[in-house]
Amino acid sequence: MSNMPGWLGRLGARLTRMEERLAQRRAEAAGNGNGNGDEESPAGRQPGTVPLPPSYAPAVPAVVDRPDPASAVPWGMRVAAEAGWRLLVLAGTLWVLMKAISAVQLVVLAFVAALLITALLQPTVARLRRLGLPRGLATAVTAILGFVIMGLVGWFVVWQVLDNLDNLADRVKDGIEELKRWLLDSPFHVTEQQINDIAKNLSDTIGTNTEEITSAGLQGVTVMVEILTGILLTMFSTLFLLYDGKRIWQWTLKLVPAHARPGVAGAGPRAWRTLTAYVRGTVVVALIDAIFIGLGVYILDVPLAVPLAVFIFLFSFIPLVGAVVSGALAVVVALVTQGVFTALMVLVVVLAVQQLEGHVLQPFILGRAVRVHPLAVVLAVAAGGLTAGIGGAVVAVPLVAVTNTVVGYLRAYGQRYPVHMGPAPHGVTAIEVAPSAPPPPLPSPPASPPEGDEPK
C-alpha cells in the first residue's frame, strides 16, 4: 500500500507526456499539412478525417469543376435538336391526321363542300333577314333556291349531252375521216397503213379489255352511291351551317385553350371573309369564262356548245388545271367534229379568255382578299388531287388561302399582344443560356380581343 502513491504518480506523468506528444503532432499536421510525404500514424489521425496517400502513390491532379453537358453543346446544335423533335412530333401528328381524314374522306369532302356553298349562300340569308324574314324561313328559301339552281344546271348538262349524242357521233365519224385525210396530206409523212394499224390496235385493246371495262362499270355503281351520299351530307351540313353557323363557331371556340382564344376568335371572322371572297370571286370568274368561251364555240359552230360552257364553268373551280382541262376538251371536240382550222380557232379563243382571266379578272375581282402565290396554287392543287382526287383539288386553294390569312393574323396578333400566361422557358434552350440580350418590357395585353364579325 505504501508503493501505491508512487505508481499512480508515474502513470500520471506518462499520460501527461503522451498527451503533450499528441498535441505536438496535431500542431505539426495542422501547420504544414504533413507536406513531407510521411505517412500519418493512426495515433495522430483526427476522428472523421481521410488519411493522406502514401509517399509512393502517384500524384493526383486537382479536381476541376466540369461544365454542364448542355452548355458544352454548340448553341446551333441545341436549337436544331429542339426544333427537330418538335418537327418529328408535328410530322407524326399530320400523318395520323391524314390517315384519319382518308378513312372518312367522304364526310370531310362533304363538309368542306358545305362550307363553300354556305360561303356562297350566306349573304343571301343575311339580306333576307334584313328584309324582316325569320332566320328559319330565310335559311329555307335560300337553301331551296340554291339547290334547285344547282340541280337544274346538272340536269341541263345531261339533257344537252343526251340530246346531241347521235349528232355528235356522226360528226365525230366525219371529223375522224377529215383528220385522217389531213394527216395523209400533212408534212409528217404518215401513211394510210400506219393509220389503219393504229385504229386496229385501238379496236383490239378495247376488245381485250372488255372485262376490265365491265368491272369499271360495276365500280361506277358504287361511286354513284358514294356521290349521292356525299350530296345528301352536303345538303344537311349546308342547312345547319346557314341556320346555326354562329352558335357552331362559338361552341368551337370553347375547345380552344383560354389564353389562345382571343387570337383564334379574331382570326375566325377574317378567315370566313377570305373564304367568302374566294367563292364569290371564283363563281364570277368561272361564269365569265364559260360565257365567253361558250360564245366563241357557238359562233364557230362546234356542237355541244352549251354543255361545253357548263363544263368550263365547273372546271374553273380548279385553279390553273381546270382551265387547261376544260379548254383542251373544247379543242378536242372542235377537232373531231369541225376539223383542224376550227380547233385552232377554239384554241385561240380559250387562250385569249384565260389571259383575260389571269391579268384582269382575278386581280380585279379577287383583289387582295385572296392573295396566294402561283407556285403555292400549283403545289396545293397537285397535293389535293393526289390526296383526294378532284374534290381535293377543288378545296386545296381555298384551304391554302384561309390558312394564309389565319397564320398572318395570328403572327401579327402575337407580336402586338404577347401571351404572358404561358409556362416559363425550360430545357437546353432556355432563355438564361441563350446568347441574346434580355427582351424589352412588353405591353400589357388587351382586356378583350379585337372586334370582328362572327361567321354566320
Secondary-structure map:
Elements: H1 4-32, H2 69-72, H3 75-103, H4 105-130, H5 135-163, H6 165-185, H7 192-208, H8 210-253, H9 261-299, H10 305-315, H11 321-338, H12 340-365, H13 374-416
Helix pairs in contact: 4-5, 4-8, 4-9, 4-13, 5-8, 5-10, 6-11, 9-10, 9-12, 9-13, 10-11, 11-12
Describe this structure in words.
The chain has helices at 4-32, 69-72, 75-103, 105-130, 135-163, 165-185, 192-208, 210-253, 261-299, 305-315, 321-338, 340-365, 374-416. The chain is elongated, with a radius of gyration of 42 Å. α4 packs across α5 and α11 (321-338) packs antiparallel against α12 (340-365). The chain has a domain at 262-416. With 456 residues, it is mainly α.
Task: Supply database-style keywords.
456 residues; AI-2E family transporter; mainly alpha; 13 helices; single chain
Radius of gyration: 42 Å
Q: What level of helicity do the residues show? A: over 70%
Total number of helices: 13
Shape: elongated
State the end-to-end CA separation: 120 Å
* Overall mean pLDDT: 75
Order of helices and strands: HHHHHHHHHHHHH
Which segments are poorly predicted (pLDDT under 50) over 5 or more consecutive residues? 33-40, 428-439, 445-456
* Multimerization status: single chain
Strand content: under 5%
What structural category characterises the helix and strand content?
mainly alpha
* Sheet with the most strands, sense and barrel status: none
- Number of E strands: 0
Protein name: AI-2E family transporter
